[in-house]
Amino acid sequence: MIPPRYDVVAIGNALVDVLCHKDDGFIAAQGLRRGLMQPIAPDRAVLLHEAMGQCEEVCGGSAANTMAALARFGLRLAFVGQVGDDRLGRLFAQDMAANGIAFPLPPIDQPTGRCLIIVSPDGHRTMNTAIGASEYLPAAAFDGALAAEAAILYVEGYMWRTDEPRAAALAAIGAARAHGRRTAFTLSSEYCVQQHRDAFVALLDAGLIDILFANEGELAELSGCSGFDAGVAWAAARTPLLIATRGPDGAVAAAGERRFQTPAEPFGAIVDTTGAGDLFAAGVLAGLAQGHDLQVALRMGSIAAGRIIALTGPRLPQGENLPRLIEDRLRGA
Asked: What are phi and psi of 76, to 5 degrees?
C-alpha cells in the first residue's frame, strides 16, 4: 500500500459559528428547543441572528472544528467543504490556511452556511443551523485521490441532510475503502440520527465504517436500546471501533469484545459545551495518528473535550498548545 499523504482528511459542512449568551427565556421566546441542534431556513437565520444582538463569529462546522484542533498536533490535514463567495466564505478559507489545512474547493455563488449558537447560563448550547453553500457540495467536487491518500477519512453525519453532500460523502467513503484506508464517522447530533437512522445503520451493516463516534444520546437513538451498555454492545457488533462519550461520566471505547473506559477530564467549571464532541474526536484521532494505544487515545480525547468546555466556543485560543496540555495531563503534571 502506498504511504498516505495525509494523516486525516475530513468531509463536512463549512460553517461560521455565531455565538451569544442568553437565558432560557430568550430561547423560549424564539420558539427554539433548548439544548438541541436543529436546521433553520436562511431567512429565519437572518432574523434570529439580528435578535441575538452582539455576537462572536468563529469558523466552525463539526468536522472543521475537529480539524482545527488536529492542526495543533502538526498533522497533515485536508478538509473538503463548500463555502460561498462572500465575507464569511473568505473568513473560513483564511482560517483553513492559517491552520495549515488544505482546502481545495473554490467558493460558489451561494451564501456561506452559519450556525447560530445560544449558550445558556449552565453552559448548554442551542444550535440553529442554516447550511447555505454546504448544501451544494456535489459528489463531483470530491477528488477521490484525497480519500485514497488519507490514513483516516473523517465524515460528519450532517452531510446526510441533503442529496448532493450525502453523495459526496459516500463517494469519499467508497474511495477510502477501495484503497484500504480507515473510515471514521461521527453521528453529529441526536436530531441527525433521528432523521437518518436507517441510512446510518446501513453504513454500519455494510461494513463501511471502521471508527464510529457517538455520544450517549446519539447511541441510544441509533441502537434503539434503552440502556447504555446494550447500545455499546449493539454498535460494537457492527463496527470495529466504537467511541462513545457520556459527558461527566467520561467515555467508553469498544473494540470487539474489549472495553476501555476513561473518566471526564474537567478544567474547572463548565462554561460552554459547544465543540465538546468535536474536540474529543480530535484528541482520539490525534492519538491514533501518532500510534498511541487505544486507552491513551481515548484519554487524549477526554482531555481535549475537558479543555474546550471550560471556554466559550468550539475553538481553542490562538497559540494554546493542546499537545503539551495533553502530555502534561497524561504524565500527571
From this structure: -85, 120
Mean pLDDT confidence for 199-220: 97
Whether the Cβ atoms of residue 230 and residue 224 lie closer than 8 Å to each other: no
What does the domain layout of the chain look like in residue ranges? 6-16+60-112+132-330
Buried b (16+ CB within 10 A) or exposed e, 169-189: bbbbbebbbebebbbbbbbbb
For the entire predicted model, the pTM comes to: 0.90
In sequence order, the 6+-apart residues with CB closer than 8 A to the CB of 206 are none
227 versus 37: the higher-pLDDT residue is 227
- What are the CA-CA distances from residue 218 to residues 1, 53, 127, 184, 197 (Å)? 35, 31, 16, 16, 10
- The DSSP symbol for 269 reads S
Q: What is the edge-to-edge ordering of all strands in the sheet holding 6-11?
A: 77-80, 6-11, 150-156, 182-186, 211-215, 241-245, 251-255, 258-262
CA distance 257 to 240: 10
**For residue 180, how far is the Cα from the chain centroid?**
23
Residue 87 pLDDT class (50, 70, 90 cuts): confident
CATH 3.40.50.2300 fits 6-16+60-112+132-330, yes or no: no
CA dihedral 216, 212, 323, 287 (to 10 degrees): 130
Three cell numbers at 74?
502538526
Of residues 118, 58, 126, the one with CA closest to residue 94: 58
Tell which residue, 284, 315, 265, has the closest CA to residue 210. 284
